[in-house]
Amino acid sequence: MDCCICISMPSTLRPPRKMLCETCYEGATKLKETLNGTKSNNNSQPNSYKAIERDDLEERLNFLSGFVAAFRYQMHPDILLKPSNDGPPIPAHKALLAVRSEVLKNMFESESRFKAPATEIETVWEMKHDELETLLEFLYNGVVSEDKMKRHVYALSLAADKYYIPYLRKICERHLDLYLCLTNALDILEIAEVCSYPKLKDKALAFIVENSSHFVHATGFYDWALKNPHLHVLITMAMVPKTKTKTFPF
């Protein structure tokens, strides 16, 4: 039988040129099996790598969770942070705070009072005890529970902005964006302005304009407008449609 593979001149075969001898057929079959096996191995290899990476990630998270234990059980603290509401000072570790915040790092390096023993350091933070404790838990753990985020999101946003903690800023902005509603839109607009969340500010402003009849007559809007006159102007400008300016001869 003429074979289209091993014949010396396959062009002389009449179409269709699909005839194979037994030897070439067996060779082609083995080659196909080899290629299929290689493809199967390549497909399974990433899955095994993913499993290894997942295990490594879990081990890494467990390894890093030691920071939480250091905070929770007050292991060798070297700074005491005093909240603004006369609550008890909270022990912490300057090294970790400096790693989390460039502002705190510069503060610790530049001010001599932070070089004293931990028992002699009390720095007043503009946060209540629960708010400060939640912030520290985040700095040690990288996580804020949903309940604490709902209660302290405004204080955490201000702290993230003041002490430049980008990851916390991102989490707070995402939370505020997710829970924007009639009851908190004005507060979110205010915090977005203070903390420089431009996208959130635009979204809150558009939401307020869309529901202007609710906000204009809402209890507390007058006091809020007196507190935030520039934002009140922005709302008014957004509510009034733009018209062409007419010039009048004098």
From TrEMBL:
Pathway(s) per entry: Protein modification; protein ubiquitination
InterPro entries, A to Z: At1g01640-like, BTB/POZ_dom, SKP1/BTB/POZ_sf
SMART domains recorded: BTB
Protein name stated in the entry: BTB domain-containing protein
The organism's place on the tree of life at top rank: Eukaryota
The organism's taxonomic lineage, starting at the top: Eukaryota, Viridiplantae, Streptophyta, Embryophyta, Tracheophyta
CDD domains, A to Z: BACK, BTB_POZ_ZBTB_KLHL-like
Purpose of the protein: May act as a substrate-specific adapter of an E3 ubiquitin-protein ligase complex (CUL3-RBX1-BTB) which mediates the ubiquitination and subsequent proteasomal degradation of target proteins.
All residue ranges annotated as the BTB domain in the record: 77-148
